[in-house]
Amino acid sequence: MSHTQEETVRFTTQVGARGRLVLPAVVRKRLALNEGDRVVLTLEPDGSMRLVGLKEQVRKVRGLYRNVAPGVDLVAELIRERRDEERRETES
Question: Which domains does the chain have, with CATH numbers?
Answer without folding.
Answer: 17-91 (2.10.260.10)
